[in-house]
Predict the structure of Transmembrane protein 234.
Amino acid sequence: MKTVVDILWLLLVAALWGVTNPLLKKGTVGIEHVKEGSRISQLLAEVKFLFLNIKCLLPFLLNQSGSVVFYFTLATTDLSLAVPTVNSLSFLFTLLTGKLLGEDFGGKRAVLGMVLTMLGVTLCVVSSASEAESAGLQNTTQTRNTGYQTVPH
């Protein structure tokens, strides 16, 4: 990653994706009561329910805006670092938001999973940063040691 701004963009994406998951879950409450005769009319009735329900539509739009931000952020960040970082942090935002909304988060096993996930992401970040640093030093050393000079003919 190049700057702190890139990290902040990735945090924003993780927050948008993570916070909206429990909100989408709450917003879809009641869809099981939508009943129609045929599969096509059932599908249309469910789509109508979802798109006319502001409790579902607003989190959906926020979630999709996170995807747009992620797409643009990938232009300046390393994919192998951005994906695990955003996905694991969005998991944490989902867990915290769900807890704030009164959901059960799974107890000790969920906490252990969260700790292991964060440990894995930390290892990815450290590994990626050290590889980038060593590659940058190696490229600098190679260009200094070659001593090639272009002479016009």
Remarks:
- Residues 4-139 form one domain.
- Residues 108-146 form the longest helix (39 residues).
